[in-house]
Amino acid sequence: MRIALISDIHANLPALEACLAAAQKQDADRLALLGDFVGYGPDPEAVVARVGPLVAAGAIAVLGNHDMAVLKPSRDMNPVAAEAIAWTRGQLSKDAKSFLAGLPFEVRSGDLLFVHADASDPAAWHYVTDAEAARASLSGCNAQVTFCGHVHVPALYCLSAAGKMTSHAPVQDVAIPLPAQRKWLAVIGSAGQPRDGNPAASFAVYDTDTRSLTYCRAPYDVDSVAQRMRGLGLPDSLAGRLLRGR
Questions:
Q1: DSSP secondary structure string, 195-227?
Q2: How far apart are CA 86 and CA 88, in angstroms?
Q3: How far apart are CA 204 and CA 172, in angstroms?
Q4: What span, in angstroms and rounded, lies between the C-alpha atoms of 238 and 200?
Q5: d(CA 137, CA 139)
Q6: 168 — pLDDT class (breaks 50, 70, 90)
Q7: According to the model, what pLDDT value does residue 74 have?
Q8: What would the pLDDT profile of 9-20 be if each residue is shown by its tens digit?
Q9: Which pLDDT band, with edges at 50, 70 and 90, does 169 fall under?
Q10: pLDDT score at 194
Q11: Closest by Cα among 243, 244, 210, 215 to 227
């Protein structure tokens, strides 16, 4: 099976559609959507409406912190993110909010774990930004491979049987073997608001037969999305970040 992993869509429908189209070309058999469907972007209702039928058809989906913030205001967000969430809350239908409220914090499938943030405490929304944070996440769960988002920068971490922790900077379109003798944590990056300097939507494909992971990018019309964000009155800095990929 080939699983397409998409995270942090952030109400960016064109980015989501670009990832879905690219995943289809790569013969993905299943989708895993790792949270933050809303927040920041201009298409919260449309994204949830697009994702709902995918989940009904068998896609994995988990809750993200921005999804939670729409349902329950958070004091942990910076002012720009909070402003975008307040706007988003007013755009979402009752059905869309109900869909988000029904999402789990994590999903386990065999030796794979799908979660939005740190797997050791998914509801705390800790960021996995370095090897020590990855160690804490991997030590707090018994999955062979953990897939998460939340950070918006693709990364891969490995914990050996001897307890040695290593990190890898993934190269686009290069399949990375994930041997079963080790534990792995893959940070997928963001489809809808990347922060690694590349504005193209980020996603990945995991092949369960070869136990290999490939990080991918899907270009789309970033300029038009940024223009719509500004036209809707969303914070200008969010449109700028989208254009820069940072």
A1: -SS--SEEEEEEETTTTEEEEEEE---HHHHHH
A2: 5
A3: 9
A4: 15
A5: 6
A6: confident
A7: 77
A8: 999 999 999 999
A9: confident
A10: 96
A11: 243
Q: Which amino acid is at 98?
A: S
pLDDT value at residue 237: 95
From CA 106, how far away is CA 109, in angstroms rounded? 10
Beta-carbon contacts of residue 199 (< 8 Å; ≥ 6 apart): 222, 242, 243, 244, 245
pLDDT tens digit string along 30-74?
999 999 999 999 999 999 999 999 999 999 999 999 999 999 987
Residue type, 212: S
- 62 phi/psi in degrees, rounded to 5: -130, 165
CB of 28 closer than 8 Å to CB of 59 = no
The secondary structure of the chain as a DSSP string is -EEEEE---TT-HHHHHHHHHHHHHTT--EEEE-S--SSSSS-HHHHHHHHHHHHHTT-EE---HHHHHHHS--SSS-HHHHHHHHHHHHH--HHHHHHHHT--SEEEETTEEEESS-TTSGGG-----SHHHHHHHHHT---SEEEE-SSSS-EEEEE-TT--EEEE-PPTT-EEE--TTSEEEEE---SSS--SS--SEEEEEEETTTTEEEEEEE---HHHHHHHHHHTT--HHHHHHHHHT-
